[in-house]
Amino acid sequence: MDRKSSSSFYRILLILLLIVCAVLVTVIVMSRRGAQLPEPVTPTPERPVETETGTKTVTLYFGAPDGSGLVEVNREMPVPSDPSALLAGVMRELASGPSGKVVAVLPSGTQVRSAYISGSDAYVDFSSELKSGFSGGSTEEYLLIASIVRTVAENFPDISRVQILVEGKTVDSLGGHYEITEPLPVGEWE
Amino acid sequence: MKRILVFIVFVALASLVVCACAAPRAAAAEARKAKKIGERYYLSMNDAALLLGATKYWNEETRKAVLNVEGTRIRLTALSPIVAVGEKTFVLPCPVLLSRGVIFIPVELFTQTVPASMGKTITWNQGSQYLSVVKEGTVPATVSVEVSDRVAYVTVESPERIEYSPVNVSNDGFSVLLERASLLAKPVLQENPIVTGLSVGRAPGGVELRVALARGVSGYSMERKGGPPRIVLGFTSSEELLRAGDFLPLGTEMPRVASGRDYKVVVIDAGHGGADEGIRAGGSVEKQIDLDVARDVKDALSAAGLSAVLTRSEDAQTSVDERAVRANSAGGDLFVSIHCDGYPDSQARGYSVEVLQPDGLAGGAQQGEGQGVASAGVDLVPWSEVAKGHVNESASLARYISRSLGAVEGLRDAGFRRAPIVLFRGVDMPCVLVNCGFLTNPGDEALLRDGASQRRIAGAIAAGIVEFVNASRR
Questions:
Q1: What pLDDT digit, counting tens, does each position of B327-351 carry?
Q2: pLDDT tens digits for B33-89?
Q3: Which of B61, B146, B169, B434 has a CA that sits 20 to 30 A from residue B421's CA?
């Protein structure tokens, strides 16, 4: 009887251990994956140049003043650790609009809610202004979509399709001209 | 028991190691132009980071810069020729320059040091001053163009043989797929009467080289040449050379099955309507202009002996599906949608035509078929896909309309576009969308608002349709 109870005690202990291990591993994995974890608040000492935050020149596409196509603009931005956060950062730069003589094609007030990469597909989720704030013609609508697709393609060469989402959902079209329900192949939006 | 515990610890550690080793993403294949300073060539720090897909760091006080390429650090110091790549140190033939806060790196870092120490293939073309990183597993190629007044040759040159396949050999959107190739530098094109544009796009399995041709270009040739392996694409506008047999006729998008096809009923679709006003600019409202022009097109077609039907004849909101049902049930053979364009900048002006794009690269070949799901001998095509079965006829009709509109005084040709147009969903016939001009441009708006010029625009659209119908009968 003694033996029996000790063996079941070990079994319970083993299960508990397994659960503890699983939780630990999950926590560690999550903390590695989660990019938005706040930075520790401990003051950072003067660091050598190698460990400063790096910057990257990214390429954004805005509308040409005469509507004939897109214009390339380079912008400097800090580089976050993972590609999805970089994608979100690049899209925020695009949504913030251009300075100078090129045309903002995203409706003003449009926010980037989130962005993520899955295989060779990129998903960019915008706030409702992307659709509700749009009131232009087909050239404007085309260049709006093309500016998003090409900006993603240019900065993420491994991406072959871009899915545009509004408030987390797919939409039929932004202004009634072009269908964007499905992920958009990057080669078709020049 | 012990063994089990050891095993658990091992599994936990192993999963940690797996997480830590998540592979970094591959860098982009890039080409960047060098700058000549004095007698030597340099690449700016920005361009260097773009070329290598690197993250860059710069410390102004110590004047030290770092390029982090997929974990390998290239450390540079302004005004010093010494550079460290990973653990190794190299001496460049001249120092890194610092000019107005911009760092310029001698090209030798990229042509010698980086290839030797990091195993990257980088090519340097002194003629064009371009440095390019060759993507692993691809063959680098350069594109050049030679033009005389009757013939143009586009040459793709590469150190190894590149397999190629034509994607589109028509006058509209000529393109060739270059398998496993990566193109160095952007092709430079001088103004000439034959090739009007060259562009390169990524495509499954390689890159797609697109050659935009002037309207009169009627023949092409394709051949391989030796020396360094070359693919030479020839184009000509000379009927004489075409007859001599050195060139093949380009499939222009005139209807290929011209015989037999008789288009009788043309559906004219006025955009917007009711609460959906379309663009409102300069005192004009798009829905009204669309309807005015659509009515005029209908009248002009009737006068030419064709039967024309409107999808809406009054100011009423009409859904995409309602329009498709009306068009299909009227037995329509052609569908032409009339719209106006709009843009945030008033400089944008001119008319344009739009058609659906074929699906994928191979899509251009499917004429009159659509993607059917075979079921007991009946082809079931999804409602949303039916319009795609007519892409080639649509493009041809669009060309005729665009050409005809070119004759309207004051209206500029703003182009031809292929896109996934929502408005054609369910329309089972060739479809073209015509943007008659930009209401956001004062000149265009004045034209579109005026009754007489509306009739001229409508007349030109109708004339283009009639020409297409007549050409198809032949």
A1: 999 999 999 999 999 999 999 999 9
A2: 888 888 899 999 888 988 888 888 888 888 889 998 888 889 999 999 999 998 888
A3: B169
Residue A1: strand, helix, or coil? coil
Tell whether the torsion through CA atoms of B362, B365, B308 and B354 is positive or negative.
Answer: positive
For residues B349 and B412, the answer to whether their CB atoms sit within 8 Å is yes
Closest B-chain CA to A21: B12
Share of chain B above pLDDT 70, in %: 84
pLDDT per residue as tens digits for the range B349-359? 999 999 988 76
Which chain B residue has its CA at the smallest distance from A102's CA? B345
The complex's ipTM works out to 0.71
Of A21, A56, A190, the CB nearest to B201: A190
CA pair distance A125, A127, nearest whole angstrom: 7
Residue in B1, B343, B417 nearest the CB of A10 = B1
Which of B272, B422, B433, B441 best probes binding to A when mutated, by most A CB atoms within 10 angstroms? B422
Give the pLDDT of residue B27: 26
CA of A115 vs chain B CAs: smallest distance (Å):
17
pTM of the model: 0.67
Interatomic CA distance for residues B454 and B458, integer angstroms: 6
